[in-house]
Amino acid sequence: MAFTLIHYRNKSKLTEQEEQKETAQIQLSAVRSQLNPHFLFNALSGIQNLMNKNEVDQANRYLTKFARLTRNVLKSNELITIADETALLDDYLQMEQLRFGFTYNIDADKDANIANTEIPAMLLQPFVENAVKHGIADKGADGKINISIKKQGNDVVLAITDNGRGFNTEKENPGLGLALSKKRIALLNKIYKDSPVLMDIQSDKQHTKVTLTLTRWV
Predict the structure, then answer these.
(1) For residue 93, what is the enclosing H or E element?
(2) Is 107 helix (H, G, I), strand (E, B) or coil?
(3) Complete domains list, the chain, with CATH
(4) What is the pLDDT of residues 46-66, one digit of tens each?
Protein backbone atom coordinates (compact mmCIF):
# COMPACT_ATOMS: atom_id res chain seq x y z
CA MET A 1 0.00 0.00 0.00
CA ALA A 2 2.80 2.40 0.99
CA PHE A 3 4.71 1.56 -2.22
CA THR A 4 1.60 2.21 -4.32
CA LEU A 5 1.06 5.58 -2.62
CA ILE A 6 4.70 6.63 -3.17
CA HIS A 7 4.52 5.50 -6.80
CA TYR A 8 1.31 7.49 -7.31
CA ARG A 9 2.83 10.62 -5.74
CA ASN A 10 5.99 10.36 -7.85
CA LYS A 11 3.95 9.85 -11.01
CA SER A 12 1.71 12.78 -10.10
CA LYS A 13 4.77 14.97 -9.46
CA LEU A 14 6.31 14.02 -12.82
CA THR A 15 3.03 14.78 -14.59
CA GLU A 16 2.85 18.16 -12.90
CA GLN A 17 6.45 18.95 -13.88
CA GLU A 18 5.75 17.99 -17.49
CA GLU A 19 2.66 20.20 -17.53
CA GLN A 20 4.66 23.11 -16.12
CA LYS A 21 7.34 22.55 -18.77
CA GLU A 22 4.74 22.48 -21.56
CA THR A 23 3.14 25.67 -20.23
CA ALA A 24 6.53 27.39 -20.09
CA GLN A 25 7.26 26.23 -23.65
CA ILE A 26 4.00 27.73 -24.91
CA GLN A 27 4.72 31.00 -23.10
CA LEU A 28 8.26 30.97 -24.51
CA SER A 29 6.92 30.64 -28.05
CA ALA A 30 4.59 33.58 -27.40
CA VAL A 31 7.49 35.76 -26.21
CA ARG A 32 9.57 34.73 -29.24
CA SER A 33 6.67 35.70 -31.53
CA GLN A 34 6.70 39.16 -29.92
CA LEU A 35 10.44 39.57 -30.46
CA ASN A 36 10.18 38.91 -34.19
CA PRO A 37 7.91 41.88 -35.11
CA HIS A 38 9.90 44.08 -32.69
CA PHE A 39 13.07 43.28 -34.64
CA LEU A 40 11.37 43.66 -38.03
CA PHE A 41 9.88 47.04 -37.10
CA ASN A 42 13.30 48.36 -36.07
CA ALA A 43 14.86 47.09 -39.32
CA LEU A 44 12.12 48.68 -41.45
CA SER A 45 12.68 51.96 -39.63
CA GLY A 46 16.30 51.75 -40.77
CA ILE A 47 15.28 51.33 -44.40
CA GLN A 48 12.87 54.26 -44.13
CA ASN A 49 15.61 56.39 -42.61
CA LEU A 50 17.96 55.73 -45.54
CA MET A 51 15.22 56.37 -48.10
CA ASN A 52 14.32 59.67 -46.43
CA LYS A 53 17.95 60.74 -46.75
CA ASN A 54 17.83 59.71 -50.43
CA GLU A 55 20.63 57.19 -49.91
CA VAL A 56 19.17 54.78 -52.44
CA ASP A 57 22.24 52.59 -52.94
CA GLN A 58 22.65 52.13 -49.20
CA ALA A 59 18.94 51.40 -48.84
CA ASN A 60 19.14 48.72 -51.55
CA ARG A 61 22.10 47.05 -49.82
CA TYR A 62 20.21 47.27 -46.55
CA LEU A 63 17.15 45.64 -48.16
CA THR A 64 19.25 42.74 -49.49
CA LYS A 65 20.59 41.95 -46.02
CA PHE A 66 17.16 42.56 -44.51
CA ALA A 67 15.59 39.91 -46.77
CA ARG A 68 18.11 37.29 -45.68
CA LEU A 69 17.73 38.26 -42.05
CA THR A 70 13.95 38.05 -42.26
CA ARG A 71 14.10 34.46 -43.51
CA ASN A 72 16.35 33.50 -40.60
CA VAL A 73 14.43 35.42 -37.94
CA LEU A 74 11.07 33.95 -38.91
CA LYS A 75 12.28 30.37 -38.59
CA SER A 76 10.55 28.62 -35.71
CA ASN A 77 13.60 26.74 -34.37
CA GLU A 78 13.97 27.33 -30.65
CA LEU A 79 17.61 26.23 -30.63
CA ILE A 80 20.25 27.05 -33.25
CA THR A 81 24.01 26.62 -33.41
CA ILE A 82 26.24 29.41 -32.17
CA ALA A 83 27.61 29.61 -35.73
CA ASP A 84 24.13 30.35 -37.10
CA GLU A 85 23.43 32.88 -34.33
CA THR A 86 26.68 34.75 -35.00
CA ALA A 87 26.00 34.71 -38.76
CA LEU A 88 22.62 36.35 -38.09
CA LEU A 89 24.26 38.94 -35.83
CA ASP A 90 26.93 39.59 -38.46
CA ASP A 91 24.25 40.27 -41.09
CA TYR A 92 22.35 42.53 -38.71
CA LEU A 93 25.43 44.53 -37.69
CA GLN A 94 26.56 44.94 -41.30
CA MET A 95 23.09 46.23 -42.08
CA GLU A 96 23.11 48.78 -39.25
CA GLN A 97 26.69 49.72 -40.03
CA LEU A 98 25.40 51.13 -43.34
CA ARG A 99 23.34 53.62 -41.34
CA PHE A 100 25.58 54.49 -38.41
CA GLY A 101 29.17 53.78 -39.48
CA PHE A 102 30.29 52.10 -36.23
CA THR A 103 32.82 49.25 -36.03
CA TYR A 104 32.21 45.84 -34.49
CA ASN A 105 33.92 42.55 -33.78
CA ILE A 106 32.59 39.05 -33.15
CA ASP A 107 35.11 36.87 -31.33
CA ALA A 108 34.19 33.20 -30.87
CA ASP A 109 36.48 30.98 -28.83
CA LYS A 110 37.46 27.81 -30.73
CA ASP A 111 36.74 25.75 -27.61
CA ALA A 112 33.07 26.83 -27.79
CA ASN A 113 32.59 24.46 -30.77
CA ILE A 114 30.25 26.95 -32.43
CA ALA A 115 29.36 24.65 -35.32
CA ASN A 116 27.77 22.07 -33.03
CA THR A 117 26.84 23.85 -29.80
CA GLU A 118 23.22 25.01 -29.82
CA ILE A 119 21.79 27.95 -27.88
CA PRO A 120 18.32 29.55 -27.78
CA ALA A 121 17.69 31.29 -31.11
CA MET A 122 17.95 35.10 -31.11
CA LEU A 123 19.18 35.09 -27.53
CA LEU A 124 21.74 37.81 -28.24
CA GLN A 125 19.85 39.76 -30.91
CA PRO A 126 17.78 42.07 -28.64
CA PHE A 127 20.85 43.01 -26.60
CA VAL A 128 22.85 43.76 -29.75
CA GLU A 129 19.94 45.87 -31.03
CA ASN A 130 19.95 47.82 -27.77
CA ALA A 131 23.71 48.35 -28.07
CA VAL A 132 23.19 49.86 -31.53
CA LYS A 133 19.98 51.81 -30.97
CA HIS A 134 20.51 53.08 -27.41
CA GLY A 135 24.30 52.86 -27.15
CA ILE A 136 26.37 53.86 -30.16
CA ALA A 137 23.90 55.11 -32.81
CA ASP A 138 24.90 58.74 -32.31
CA LYS A 139 28.66 58.12 -32.10
CA GLY A 140 29.17 57.46 -35.82
CA ALA A 141 32.57 55.95 -36.65
CA ASP A 142 33.60 56.23 -32.99
CA GLY A 143 30.99 53.65 -31.98
CA LYS A 144 32.28 50.18 -31.14
CA ILE A 145 30.55 46.89 -30.37
CA ASN A 146 32.29 43.70 -29.33
CA ILE A 147 30.65 40.29 -29.04
CA SER A 148 32.58 37.49 -27.37
CA ILE A 149 31.68 33.82 -27.04
CA LYS A 150 33.71 31.66 -24.69
CA LYS A 151 33.58 28.23 -23.13
CA GLN A 152 34.42 28.23 -19.43
CA GLY A 153 34.34 24.73 -18.02
CA ASN A 154 30.86 23.43 -18.82
CA ASP A 155 29.46 26.95 -19.26
CA VAL A 156 29.06 29.04 -22.40
CA VAL A 157 29.62 32.74 -21.71
CA LEU A 158 28.23 35.28 -24.18
CA ALA A 159 29.08 38.98 -23.79
CA ILE A 160 28.07 42.12 -25.69
CA THR A 161 30.05 45.29 -24.97
CA ASP A 162 29.55 48.75 -26.45
CA ASN A 163 31.16 52.13 -25.81
CA GLY A 164 27.87 54.02 -25.72
CA ARG A 165 26.44 56.33 -23.11
CA GLY A 166 25.04 53.54 -20.93
CA PHE A 167 21.98 53.57 -18.69
CA ASN A 168 20.95 53.12 -15.08
CA THR A 169 20.60 49.36 -14.56
CA GLU A 170 18.75 49.92 -11.27
CA LYS A 171 15.80 51.50 -13.06
CA GLU A 172 13.21 49.73 -15.21
CA ASN A 173 14.37 50.10 -18.80
CA PRO A 174 11.61 51.11 -21.21
CA GLY A 175 13.05 49.12 -24.14
CA LEU A 176 10.64 46.40 -25.26
CA GLY A 177 13.43 44.13 -26.49
CA LEU A 178 15.14 44.08 -23.09
CA ALA A 179 11.89 43.46 -21.23
CA LEU A 180 10.96 40.58 -23.54
CA SER A 181 14.47 39.13 -23.22
CA LYS A 182 14.27 39.12 -19.43
CA LYS A 183 10.91 37.38 -19.63
CA ARG A 184 12.25 34.89 -22.13
CA ILE A 185 15.26 34.04 -19.95
CA ALA A 186 12.94 33.46 -16.99
CA LEU A 187 10.90 31.02 -19.10
CA LEU A 188 14.02 29.29 -20.42
CA ASN A 189 15.08 28.74 -16.82
CA LYS A 190 11.79 26.99 -16.10
CA ILE A 191 12.45 24.59 -18.97
CA TYR A 192 16.21 24.12 -18.54
CA LYS A 193 16.23 24.00 -14.75
CA ASP A 194 19.54 22.14 -14.62
CA SER A 195 21.20 24.60 -17.02
CA PRO A 196 19.90 28.07 -16.15
CA VAL A 197 20.78 31.20 -18.11
CA LEU A 198 22.31 33.90 -15.92
CA MET A 199 22.27 37.54 -16.99
CA ASP A 200 24.49 40.36 -15.74
CA ILE A 201 24.38 43.96 -17.00
CA GLN A 202 27.11 46.46 -16.15
CA SER A 203 26.71 50.01 -17.44
CA ASP A 204 28.16 53.49 -16.90
CA LYS A 205 28.49 56.68 -18.94
CA GLN A 206 31.17 55.19 -21.19
CA HIS A 207 30.17 51.60 -21.82
CA THR A 208 27.61 48.83 -21.33
CA LYS A 209 28.38 45.14 -21.00
CA VAL A 210 25.73 42.43 -21.04
CA THR A 211 26.91 38.96 -20.04
CA LEU A 212 24.80 35.84 -20.49
CA THR A 213 26.10 32.66 -18.92
CA LEU A 214 24.54 29.39 -20.05
CA THR A 215 25.47 27.22 -17.09
CA ARG A 216 26.32 23.53 -17.51
CA TRP A 217 25.38 23.90 -21.18
CA VAL A 218 28.19 21.81 -22.70
Answers:
(1) helix 82-100
(2) strand
(3) 2-214 (3.30.565.10)
(4) 777 777 877 778 878 888 877
